[in-house]
């Protein structure tokens, strides 16, 4: 039927002994209950991150993600990372979270023969995490209105945006819980998506000004896909003015360690 962990076994025997003490006989049957185990504060959980670095990914974005993972330390979590110009099932098998950074365009990712859409979907559906920033968000959405359909990892559609520069985003209550941030944050933007939910996706941040032309639209969103987790982010927290905590907290949530 399955394996019984040590704590559940001890709990079951304790219940048997208690039943015998109360009733003077052994029970006719025992139901094994799963017991949640508190994390040992001294134990270290390793999160293995793969960052796509192909010809259509921005080197600045790739390096910015590396910087954030090196700069921020989370209790009981160790981040290790690598880059790859190819994304397929064999490559993904060694990692917990895939990061598709900003790049040429979401459409370029969709058409790139070195990026397997089926492998990405299977990876996330089976419990992996996906972080898409800018081009990576466009590609993983259901569609970019008026342009092309995406991988559909999150229940959002995108509006194509043409704005480069800093802007403000407002962190939602759900965003505060996942990102550890609050209020209004100034962040870099390079033509990233303005999103709106068409399903159960959860907004983490919205555009707080009109620079994109889509004030109030979703800037960052969290969702699930099968057994896995997905975050899409239009702006660039990994670029100046960096918000390293935002990047690391997103990856930690995707890896299910926070």
From TrEMBL:
<dbReference type="InterPro" id="IPR029062">
    <property type="entry name" value="Class_I_gatase-like"/>
</dbReference>
<dbReference type="Pfam" id="PF09825">
    <property type="entry name" value="BPL_N"/>
</dbReference>
<feature type="domain" description="Biotin-protein ligase N-terminal">
    <location>
        <begin position="48"/>
        <end position="144"/>
    </location>
</feature>
<dbReference type="InterPro" id="IPR019197">
    <property type="entry name" value="Biotin-prot_ligase_N"/>
</dbReference>
<dbReference type="Pfam" id="PF09373">
    <property type="entry name" value="PMBR"/>
</dbReference>
<protein>
    <recommendedName>
        <fullName>Biotin-protein ligase N-terminal domain-containing protein</fullName>
    </recommendedName>
</protein>
<dbReference type="InterPro" id="IPR018975">
    <property type="entry name" value="Pseudomurein-binding_repeat"/>
</dbReference>
<dbReference type="InterPro" id="IPR015834">
    <property type="entry name" value="UCP016642"/>
</dbReference>
């Amino acid at each position: 039927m399955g394996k019984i962990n040590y704590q559940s076994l001890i709990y079951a025997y304790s219940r048997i002994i208690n039943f015998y003490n109360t009733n003077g006989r052994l029970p006719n049957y025992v139901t094994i209950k799963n017991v949640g185990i508190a994390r040992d504060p001294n134990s270290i959980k390793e999160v293995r991150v793969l960052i796509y670095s192909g010809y259509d990914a921005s080197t600045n974005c790739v390096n910015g993600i590396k910087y954030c993972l090196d700069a921020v330390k989370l209790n009981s979590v160790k981040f290790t990372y690598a880059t790859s110009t190819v994304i397929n099932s064999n490559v993904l098998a060694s990692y917990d979270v895939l990061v598709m950074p900003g790049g040429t365009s979401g459409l370029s990712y969709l058409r790139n023969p070195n990026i397997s859409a089926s492998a990405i979907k299977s990876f996330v559906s089976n419990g992996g995490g996906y972080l898409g920033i800018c081009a990576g968000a466009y590609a993983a959405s259901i569609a970019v209105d008026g342009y092309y359909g995406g991988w559909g990892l999150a229940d959002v559609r995108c509006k194509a945006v043409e704005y480069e520069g800093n802007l403000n985003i407002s962190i939602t209550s759900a965003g505060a819980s996942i990102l550890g941030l609050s209020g209004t944050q100034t962040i870099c933007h390079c033509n990233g998506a303005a999103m709106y939910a068409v399903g159960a996706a959860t907004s983490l941040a919205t555009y707080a000004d009109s620079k994109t032309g889509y004030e109030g639209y979703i800037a960052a969103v969290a969702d699930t896909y099968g057994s896995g987790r997905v975050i899409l982010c239009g702006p660039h927290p990994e670029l100046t003015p960096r918000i390293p905590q935002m990047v690391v907290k997103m990856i930690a949530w995707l890896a299910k360690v926070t």
